[in-house]
Amino acid sequence: MRLPQQQQQEEKQRQPQRRWQSAATCGDNGGERCAHSLLILGKPGGGKGTISGKILQDFPVFRHVSTGDELRQHVREETSLGIEAKKYMNDGLLVPDELIIQMVMDDAVDAMKKCQSLLLDGFPRTMEQAVALDKNIDVDMVINLNIPNETIIERISDRWIHPGSGRIYNLSYKPPKVDGKDDETGEALVQREDDKPESVQKRLENYEEATAPLVDYYATKGVLQTFSGTMSDVIYPEVKVWLDEQLMDDIEATY
Ligand code: AMP
User: Fold this and answer.
1) Is residue 4 pLDDT above 70, yes or no?
2) What ranges in 24-66 are assigned the alpha helix state H?
3) Tally of domains within the chain
4) What atom in ligand 1 is closest to the CA of residue 69?
5) Parallel, antiparallel or unpaired: strands 141-146 and 224-228
6) In terms of residue numbers, what domain contains 115?
7) In which order are the strands placed within the sheet that holds 62-66?
8) β partners of residue 41
9) Separation CA 41–CA 47 (nearest Å)
10) Is residue 11 part of a domain?
C-alpha cells in the first residue's frame, strides 16, 4: 500500500510530464517543436541554482545543464578543460567563450535531438554565447532574476561548500548540523575561491559588462520574464505560476 505522501509525490511528478507530452510528441510531429529550452539569467550568487533546483522538482522533464557545476566537476577531476578553466574561475573571471560554448553545445544539441527539454543555468553569459546558442537552439523561455547587489554580497559571504560533493550550505538559512562540517561525511567545509570578497566584486562587474546586455536581447525577442526580490522562497512561487502558464499555452495551442 502506498502512503498518501508517496502518492502525492508520484502525482506531482506525473503532472508536468503529462502536460508536456500532450503539448508535443516526438518523432511524428511534422517538424513542430517537441521540447522547450528555458534559460535562467542572473547575477552570480543570485539564486540561479536554487531556483533551478525547485523548477526541476516541479517540472522534472527538464534536463538541467549548469555550466558552473559542470566546470567545477572538470576542475575536481583535473581534466584539461578543468585545469584551464580554474585559472579564470578562481579569479572571478568568465571562462573564455570558445571553451564554454563547445562544452554546453554538445549537451544541448544532444538533448534537443532526443526531444528533451532543457534548463540552461548559467549559460549564456556573453553575447557571443547567446548567438552561438541561437544557431543551434530556439530559446523560448528566459527567466531573469533581478536581485540587489547587497543581498548577493551578503549571501555569498555566508556560502560554504563540501568540496568532494559540491553540497552547498548557507550559514544563515541552511547551516550544517555541525559547525564547519559536511552533514554526510563530516569533512571540512570550505569557501569557494570565487566566493571570496575580491572575486565577488569582480564577478558582479563582469555581470554588468558581459551578461546584463542579454536581458535586452531576450526581452526584444519577447521571451523574457523578470522576477525581482531578495528571497528565492518568495520568488519561486511566482516563477512556478509563470511557467505553468507557459506550459498551459502549449496545451491550448495543441488542441
Ligand atoms: P556559477 O556557479 O554559475 O556562478 O559559475 C562559476 C564560475 O564558472 C563563473 O564565475 C565563471 O568563471 C564560470 N562560468 C560558469 N558559466 C560560465 C559561462 N557561461 N561563461 C563563462 N564562464 C562561466
Assistant:
1) no
2) 48-58
3) 1
4) 2
5) parallel
6) 34-254
7) 62-66, 117-121, 37-42, 141-146, 224-228
8) 144
9) 10
10) no
